[in-house]
Automatic annotation (TrEMBL):
Residues 96-239 form the RXYLT1 N-terminal domain. Residues 245-434 form the RXYLT1 C-terminal domain. It holds the Pfam family RXYLT1_C. GO terms for biological process: protein O-linked glycosylation via mannose. InterPro entries: RXYLT1-like, RXYLT1_C, RXYLT1_N. GO terms for molecular function: ribitol beta-1,4-xylosyltransferase activity. This is Ribitol xylosyltransferase 1. GO terms for cellular component: Golgi apparatus.
Length: 439
């Protein structure tokens, strides 16, 4: 019995060994037959042969093609929609070209509209920029090379920035007005707006015949100073702004500007004219040593151009003073007011009318500085410099925290003022140029 089992086990072992050898031969040593080539798959939709990837039939091929076609159709539909939207935008947008032929144009472009210029070099013969705002697409050109007939007129709506302060400037300004009038007559442009640096005594009669209301072609006039003919219909008051002709920059508030203590209570760097209130101011400052508390640098003759050193001193004085004294000159409004706001130094303004034709208008009754007062300027207004000692005494008692809050309020007001002027400018142009939806 035991012998029979032994023989059976031996037989099984031998059989397993033979099967293993056969399997090894089949897998590793036996030569393989080459498979017969499969004929290419013929596309039922046409006679052209189509070989599937890897010579294998793809059961999802038709679905993939359908998805590709659908994706292409969707892309084309979206592209068409974008083109239609752009076309609609072009129809509703108003292209306006600004010709900056007075330094006040840089205040409009860089400080109010917030545009940039290329090249950045302020001495360049030609500078330009563009900016989208509301329904407006603005382009701006400026520089000595911008001359009548020597540049491309790229819009039917033109804003012409001119200087009308004195006779020589007016002569140059009228040349530009005649050029614009010729373009109007030949239908190359449709609308003209003038932003005018007006005469400091508001002697602006020369511009009146060019206004549309008087038979001219100028649709709107924005003019500096308290011009008595401002009506908020086609004549608007415009801020004097900063002295861009001296390259006063767009100032961005910093942490230190807002929070650091300042070394001086006040500052005045400017010209002291004979027999002016500025002489009174200098005398009052010398009383009780008040001039020792303020940064004072008086000169007897006006200097149109600053040196690098004098300009840096002026900026430092604004930055290091809590108050900036703003005595009247030929006009009550001066660049110093806006430049002080840029640095958070509160303007102290001599609130008196100067000689000339400036004054209240049909819509404003608080001259001088009607525009600033209407906008709630948080300045200190005084009628006589004899009030200054009391102002400075109060200033001494203010805490740093109180001054910080005042600086924040001033800088925020000035930012809002520029934004308000920007929106007013844009809205006025839109209302004048775009067709009305009424009726």
């Amino acid at each position: 019995m035991r012998g029979s089992r032994k023989r059976l086990c031996s037989a099984l072992i031998v059989a397993y060994g033979l099967f293993s050898l056969y399997a090894a031969y089949t897998v590793f040593l036996r030569p393989r037959r080459l498979a017969a080539p499969r004929p290419p798959h013929r596309d039922r939709r046409g006679s052209r042969d189509h070989v599937a990837l890897g010579n294998e039939w793809n059961p999802w091929e038709e679905d993939e093609k359908n998805e590709l076609v659908a994706s292409q159709q969707k892309y084309e539909a979206n592209l068409k929609m974008i083109k239609n939207a752009r076309s609609h935008l072009d129809q509703t947008s108003l292209r306006v070209q600004i010709w900056g032929k007075a330094a006040i144009g840089l205040y409009l472009w860089q400080h109010i509209i917030g545009g940039h210029l290329e090249p950045a070099d302020v001495t360049a013969q030609w500078r330009e920029g563009s900016q989208k705002a509301g329904k407006m697409y603005f382009s701006f050109i400026t520089g000595p090379s911008v001359a009548p007939g020597y540049f491309s007129v790229e819009a039917e709506n033109v804003v012409l920035v001119l200087n009308g302060r004195e006779k020589a400037k007016i002569t140059y300004a009228t040349q530009w007005l005649h050029y614009a009038q010729t373009l109007m007559q030949t239908r190359k442009i449709q609308h003209v707006v003038v932003v005018l640096l007006g005469n400091e005594q508001c002697n602006n009669e020369w511009i009146q015949p060019y206004l549309k209301r008087n038979g001219g072609f100028v649709n709107l006039l924005f003019v500096t100073y308290d011009y008595a003919l401002v009506n908020e219909e086609d004549i608007f008051q415009w801020p004097l702004g900063v002295a861009t002709y001296r390259n006063f920059p767009v100032v961005e508030p910093s942490w230190s500007m807002l929070r650091d203590p300042r070394s001086y209570l006040c500052n005045f760097l400017g010209t002291v004219y004979k027999n002016s209130s500025r002489e009174n101011l200098m005398e009052i400052l010398k009383q009780d040593g008040l001039d020792k508390l303020c940064w004072i640098a008086a000169r007897e003759q006006w200097q149109p151009q600053e040196t690098n050193e004098s300009f840096k001193n002026y900026q430092d004085a604004l930055l290091q003073s809590d108050l900036t004294l703003c005595p009247v000159g030929i006009n009550t409004e001066c660049y110093r007011i806006y430049e002080a706001c840029s640095y958070g130094s509160l303007p102290v303004i001599e609130d008196v009318m100067t000689s000339g034709d400036c004054g209240n208008s049909s819509v404003y009754h608080s001259a001088p500085l009607q525009l600033l007062k209407t906008m709630g300027a948080p300045f200190i207004f005084i009628k006589n410099w004899k009030e200054l000692p009391a102002v400075l005494e109060k200033e001494k008692k203010m805490s740093l925290q109180e001054k910080i809050q005042r600086r924040k309020k001033l800088i925020e007001w000035y930012r809002n003022f520029k934004a308000w002027m920007r929106q007013k400018f844009i809205n006025t142009l839109e209302n004048s140029f775009l067709p009305s939806d009424k009726g």
